[in-house]
Amino acid sequence: MTDAPIQVLLLFLVLSVSLLLFIYLARRGQRIELRRIAGLESMDEAVGRATELGRPVLFTTGLEPLNSVTTLAAIAALTRVCRVCAKYNTRLIVTLAEADVYTLVKDACQQICAEEGKPELYREEDIYFLSTMQFSYASGTAGIMQREQVGAAFFFGAFAAESLILSEAGNQIGAIQVAATTSSYQIPFFVASCDYTLIGEELFASSAYLTRDPSQLGSLLGQDLAKIAILILVVAGSTLATLWSVLGPEATWVEALLSGLLGGVLL
Amino acid sequence: MKRWIISLFTFLSGFFYILEFVLPSHTHMGKALQEAKPHVGEAIMVIAAFAVGLGVIGVCRHHLRKLFLRQKGWHNSLALLLSMFGMALFKIWEKYDPPELATRLHDLLFLDLYNQLTITVFSLLAFYVASAAYRAFRVRSVDAGLMMITALVVMLGQIPLGDRLAEWLRLPWTLTEARLWIMSVINMAGQRVILLGAYVGSLAFGIRVLLGLNRDTILEKDG
To answer: SS3 sequence, B57-114?
Structure first.
């Protein structure tokens, strides 16, 4: 196996240090302002609307198993939705495509209902492990949405071609829909079919945004700083590559700089 | 105590893979970690197998209860249980003693039934794309108008008629060229921004999980 280039290690260290630094500062009381994210603001509204209509809420965590960070972020958002549902006495249906996620989600929902003083609201039969097969999971979820006439649907996690099947099924029954995914090819489908869509990193920011926990808010600031550092590297790399193509192979200093920046990976 | 144990195992298992990735393989530590990697992977697979087992037990409990109590939709539960155990039984039968009957029964369930149902669900996408596109391309604002024009160029650029149209309109470029430019410059830039944000976000989220900083999850309250 090839070793990670030193540049990758340095980048990883810079990212980690900036994250930990801002987590530390936030814990010490530094105030952190977040921009408004409409999709996350609408979560309570969506559950509230389903409650008014007397319909259940559906949440699904996508196709990936528990070792995916995207699924973990989706579960963090699910805990929030479950808490709001428990507060409003609203039935929550969860459909899942992975058995390991099923085990965790079942325990999480049961624990949250108990914490909210409403253990009777937890119904094991409303947590569905449908199938690990993409379209079986999609048709199962779409069928449940149609049969139960859900009032609100949350699609958080990693999705593939089934994204439109799920969101159009919700659209047909008039459910208020919130989607959040890092799958860039599915974002247009969700934008076209859902009321609110969280794009890419907004999914990972959701737990920080919803809980306002200082540690999580600090990590958001740290990750913004890391993105600025990466953007500077992108601009520097693009400038050097342009210079290299204009000046030609004689410009060895440009080549050396570019090679150093990329760790000899692309040259 | 429960939270402490979970946090410790999460941290150790995550940190193992980080170290294995960043430490050079020629160092003593790096070599040891690389040698241990397959064994750690196997241990994780064993734990994951238990989780799958729990999942299967959960599914069986759920559908057996529905079946025995004759709850609404019990016949669907019966179909699911029969298919699940039938598929497993025929595949195991076929593997150890391959008679023609077992293969035929397995193929009947998998190729003739399951595959066809999957294709049917997949084909629904064509209709859903049409209805979603209709909603997305309604020109209600400048943004929606720009998106519609862009989509039109991309779609026409996919077919020969688009290039004929560009010729007829005496445009300085063909619609195929316009499509390629939109997809490889504008669209690609957007995709990369989303992916960059998602990767950094996932790294930050991963570090939070490793350090047990993610509140309002199952780990929040001590068990």
So the answer is: HHHHHHHHHHHHCCCCCHHHHHHHHHHHHHHHHHHHHHHHCCCHHHHHHHHHHHHHHH
Whole-structure pTM value: 0.85
pLDDT (tens digit per residue) in B46-55: 888 887 788 7
d(CA A103, CA B213): 22
ipTM score for this prediction:
0.81
Nearest CB to A230: which of B196, B198, B204?
A: B196
CA–CA distance, B83 with B77 (Å, rounded to integer):
10
| Percent of chain A's residues with pLDDT above 70 | 96
- Rounded Cα–Cα distance for residues A87 and A89 (Å): 6
pLDDT digits (tens, 9 = 90+) for B134-161: 887 777 788 888 888 998 899 899 998 8
Whether B110 and B87 have beta carbons less than 8 Å apart is answered as: yes
What is the set of domains in chain A, with CATH numbers? Answer: 4-31+215-261 (no CATH), 38-212 (3.40.50)
Per-residue pLDDT tens over the stretch A69-97: 899 899 989 999 999 999 999 999 999 99
Of chain A residues 110-149, which have a CB less than 8 A from chain B?
Answer: 111, 115, 124-125, 127-129, 133, 135-136, 138-139, 147
